[in-house]
Amino acid sequence: MITTIENFMNWLTDMDWGWWPLVSLRPPKDTDIDNIVLVKITPFFGTITGVMLYLMNQIYISDNFNLVIFMLHLLAGLVVFFFLYKTTFAFFWNRRAKRLRYAHALLAQNSRAA
Q1: Cα 87–10–29 angle (5° rounding)?
Q2: Which of 74, 81, 85, 89 would give a disulfide with 49, using CB separation of 3.0 to 4.6 Å?
């Protein structure tokens, strides 16, 4: 079951459109998505998350625009994106990266022994 979820999540993160416009920040498949990568992508995707949270909130509470409330939603979006991405997509990406590094090490060891 977890393998199916991992394959699906990695299939999504392997697509360029999911990283646009930050494709250059996507690490190689055998490299972990660490906090440094997340800190680099969070300002873009976290801001989008915060705006979406604000707009969803406005659907239920149709108040006039309030800058403080908007900024709080942006901050919440940054935090929510960072932690949700870390516990979902980054978790599964890092599982695959660990396996790939192990496979590369075995190949390197076998080629030296031959």
Answers
A1: 100
A2: 81
